[in-house]
Write a structure and sequence with these properties.
Layout lengths: L15 H12 L9 E3 L3 E3 L25 E7 L3 H13 L4 E5 L9 H4 L9 E5 L4 H14 L8 E4 L7 H14 L3 E2 L1 E4 L10 H21 L4 H4 L3 E7 L3 H21 L9 E6 L8 H18 L3 E3 L12 H16 L14 H25 L1
Helix pairs in contact: 4-5, 6-8, 6-11, 8-9, 8-11, 9-10
C-alpha cells in the first residue's frame, strides 16, 4: 500500500501580513485598495484571504450526497417527432443523459410514441418544456412507460410546471407526480430571466427563494404539505460569464435552501434540484470564442454544484445548430468529467477562502433581500 505523503511539509507557513508585504512590493507604490473588487454597494472582495480572517467554519454544501456528479443536458425542439427522435438517439449514444424536449407555445398534441422510439427512459432523466396541456403531456409519458412495464416510480425528470403562473394546473401536476412519478420535479422556479450583472446576483437568489416560498404557500392552501412539495421543485438558473460570481451564486442558493425548508418544517436533507443553462445573451457572433466561454461557464455550474447542465451550441446565437456545434457542446461536459474529474469531489470549491467568503457574502445579502420581499407580502 502506498504511504501517504505530506506534500506541504517542505513549505513554510506565511502570515497574511507577510503576504501583503510581498504584494505591496510588487505593486511598486500603488495602493493595495486598488485590487479590491466591489460587487454592488454591499460586497467588497479582497484579492487575497487567509485563515486568520475566517470566522469559524463555513457551512457545508455536502447536503446528503456522496459525489458531485451531474446530468448532461441537451435541448431538442419538437417540430417533427420522427426527426427529433433521431437527433435524441444520436445525442444519447454520444454521451448525454438528460434530454429536454421542447414544444413551442400553442402545441397541443404530443406524439410521444414516435418521439421515444428506442429510448429507454429508465436509464436517463427525461425533461419536458411545454406551454399548454402540461398535464396531458405528463400523463401520456407516464402511460407510455407503464405500457412498457417500466417502474414509473423510479423514472427521473422534470416538467416546467408552476404554481405561480397556473396554480390550478400546477396543483394537478403536483398531485399526479406525487402519486405516479415521485422522482419528477414538476414545479419549476424559473430564473432564466433574472440573470444580470454580478451586482444583481443577491437579488437573483433572493427572487428564486421568494418564488419557492410562494410555491410552498400556494400548495399549503390547496392542502398539499411542504414535505411533499420540496422534492418536486427544481430551480432553473442562467449562467453568465462572471466565473467566480456565477459559481458562488449556486453555492449561495444551496446554503439558503435549508433555511427556507426549516421555515416550512421540511427535512433539511432535501437538496435543491438545480438546472443550470448557459445564458444565451452571453454569446456573440464568434463561434470559437463562444466555445471558450462555454467551457468556463460550465465550470462555474458544475463546481457550484448544479445537478443538470445544458450548454448551448456555439452557433445558437444564429438560432440554429449543427452536428459539430452540438457535439462540441456535449464534449465540454465530458472533458469536465472524464479528464478533470469534477464529478468526484462533493464540493470542489470548499476550502478556497476567496470563494467561501464570496459565497457567504452573496448568501448574506440575498437572505436580507428575501426577508424584505417576504415582509412586503404580509
Amino acid at each position: 500500500m502506498m504511504e501517504k505523503q505530506n506534500l506541504f511539509s517542505d513549505f513554510s507557513t506565511l502570515t497574511k501580513a507577510e503576504w501583503e508585504e510581498k504584494v505591496l512590493k510588487e505593486l511598486k507604490g500603488k495602493p493595495f485598495d486598488e485590487l479590491v473588487w466591489q460587487i454592488g454597494e454591499q460586497i467588497d472582495l479582497s484579492p487575497m484571504y487567509s485563515p486568520e480572517e475566517m470566522q469559524g467554519d463555513m457551512p457545508s454544501l455536502v447536503l446528503d450526497r456522496d459525489t458531485n456528479d451531474w446530468d448532461i443536458g441537451e435541448d431538442f425542439i419538437c417540430l417533427d417527432a420522427k426527426e427529433t427522435n433521431k437527433q435524441a438517439l444520436d445525442a444519447l449514444e454520444n454521451g448525454i443523459n438528460a434530454p429536454c424536449f421542447i414544444w413551442a407555445e400553442g402545441v397541443k398534441d404530443f406524439d410521444l410514441k414516435t418521439l421515444f422510439q428506442n429510448i429507454e427512459a429508465q436509464y436517463i432523466s427525461t425533461h419536458f418544456s411545454a406551454f399548454a396541456n402540461q398535464e396531458s403531456l405528463l400523463k401520456a409519458f407516464y402511460q407510455l412507460q407503464k405500457d412498457k412495464d417500466e417502474d414509473t416510480a423510479a423514472l427521473k425528470g422534470s416538467l416546467n410546471g408552476s404554481l405561480l403562473r397556473k396554480p390550478k394546473e400546477g396543483i394537478e401536476l403536483l398531485r399526479f407526480a406525487i402519486a405516479h412519478l415521485p422522482q419528477f420535479q414538476v414545479l419549476t422556479i424559473d430564473g432564466q430571466g433574472l440573470a444580470g450583472a454580478p451586482a444583481q446576483v443577491p437579488l437573483e437568489v433572493a427572487t428564486l427563494l421568494s418564488r419557492a416560498s410562494e410555491t410552498f404557500y400556494i400548495a399549503s392552501q390547496e392542502g398539499v404539505e411542504a414535505e411533499l412539495v420540496a422534492p418536486r421543485i427544481q430551480f432553473s438558473i442562467s449562467i453568465g460569464t462572471s466565473y467566480f460570481v456565477e459559481l458562488a451564486k449556486i453555492r449561495a442558493l444551496q446554503l439558503l435552501w435549508p433555511l427556507l425548508l426549516k421555515a416550512y418544517q421540511v427535512s433539511e436533507k432535501v437538496k435543491p434540484q438545480i438546472s443550470a443553462r448557459l445564458n444565451a445573451s452571453t454569446q456573440i457572433a464568434d463561434q470559437e470564442l463562444n466555445m471558450i466561454r462555454a467551457s468556463t461557464q460550465a465550470m462555474s455550474a458544475v463546481l457550484g454544484g448544479a445537478g443538470r447542465v445544458t450548454i448551448l451550441p456555439a452557433n445558437a446565437f444564429e438560432q440554429q445548430s449543427n452536428s459539430f456545434t452540438r457535439r462540441i457542446a456535449r464534449n465540454i461536459q465530458h472533458i469536465l468529467k472524464m479528464e478533470s474529474y469534477f464529478d468526484r469531489v462533493i464540493d470542489p470549491a470548499a476550502g478556497s477562502y476567496y470563494l467561501d467568503t464570496l459565497t457567504h457574502q452573496l448568501a448574506e445579502q440575498a437572505w436580507k433581500l428575501f426577508q424584505e420581499m417576504e415582509a412586503e407580502k404580509k
